[in-house]
C-alpha cells in the first residue's frame, strides 16, 4: 500500500506515491494574512517608518528603475506595482521616466504572457506597448 503526497510546485503540485513506511511530513508555517497586498503596500507607502514619504523625495523628471522578480519567485508584483506607481505619480514622476526591469539572473527570458501576469494587464497592456 502507498500514501499519496502532493508537493506544491509553482501554480500546481507534484504527486508522489510513497510506500507504507514511517516517514515525517514537514509543512512550512504560514504567516497570518493581514490585509490585501495592495492595501498593505499603499499603507506602507503613505506611512513609511523613519523616512520621508517617497512622493516627498522624488521630483518630476527623475528617472526611476524598478527591479522586480521573475516568474520563478512567488512575489505578488501585480499587486505591489500599482500603489508604487501611484506614489511616484503623486510626486510628478511620469510614466515615460519609469523603467521596470525583471531580475532574471541566469533564468530564461520571460514570454509576453508571463510578463503580463507578473505586472498585471494595466501595466503590460494587450496592445504590446510595454517597457518591461
Q: Care to describe what's here?
A:
- This protein has 132 residues and is of the alpha+beta class.
- The chain has one domain (27-119): Rossmann fold, CATH 3.40.50.
- It is built from 4 helices and 4 strands; from the N terminus they run ββααβαβα.
- Strands 1-2 form a two-stranded antiparallel sheet.
- The radius of gyration is 20 Å and the shape is elongated.
- Mean pLDDT is 83; it is low at 127-132.
Query: Quick one: biggest sheet?
Result: 2 strands, antiparallel
CATH architecture label: 3-Layer(aba) Sandwich
Question: What value does the Rg take, in angstroms?
Answer: 20 Å
Structural class: alpha+beta
Low-pLDDT stretches: 127-132
Ends apart, CA distance between termini: 50 Å
Helix and strand succession? EEHHEHEH
Number of domains: 1
The shape is: elongated
* Overall strand count: 4
**CATH superfamily, please?**
LarA, N-terminal domain
**How much of the sequence is in beta strands?**
15-25%
Helix content: 25-40%
Assembly of the depicted chains: single chain
Please, how many helices? 4
The average pLDDT value, as a whole number, equals 83
What is the CATH level 1 assignment? Alpha Beta
Order of strands in the sheet with most strands: 1-2
Q: Remind me, CATH topology?
A: Rossmann fold
What is this structure's SSE topology?
Elements: E1 2-9, E2 12-19, H1 37-46, H2 54-57, E3 64-69, H3 77-90, E4 98-103, H4 112-119
Parallel strand pairs: 3-4
Antiparallel strand pairs: 1-2
Summarize this, please?
The chain has about 130 residues and is of the alpha+beta class. The chain contains 4 helices and 4 strands, in the order ββααβαβα. It has one domain: LarA, N-terminal domain (Rossmann fold), CATH 3.40.50.11440.
Amino acid at each position: 500500500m502507498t500514501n499519496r503526497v502532493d508537493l506544491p510546485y509553482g501554480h500546481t503540485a507534484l504527486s508522489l506515491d510513497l510506500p507504507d513506511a514511517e516517514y515525517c511530513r514537514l509543512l512550512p508555517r504560514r504567516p497570518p494574512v493581514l490585509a490585501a497586498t495592495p492595501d498593505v503596500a499603499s499603507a506602507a507607502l503613505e506611512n513609511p517608518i523613519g523616512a520621508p514619504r517617497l512622493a516627498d523625495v522624488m521630483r518630476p523628471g527623475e528617472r526611476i528603475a524598478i527591479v522586480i522578480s521573475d516568474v520563478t519567485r512567488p512575489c505578488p508584483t501585480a499587486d505591489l506595482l500599482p500603489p508604487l506607481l501611484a506614489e511616484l505619480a503623486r510626486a510628478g514622476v511620469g510614466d515615460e521616466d519609469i523603467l521596470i526591469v525583471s531580475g532574471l539572473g541566469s533564468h530564461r527570458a520571460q514570454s509576453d504572457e508571463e510578463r503580463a501576469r507578473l505586472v498585471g494587464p494595466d501595466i503590460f497592456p494587450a496592445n504590446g506597448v510595454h517597457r518591461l
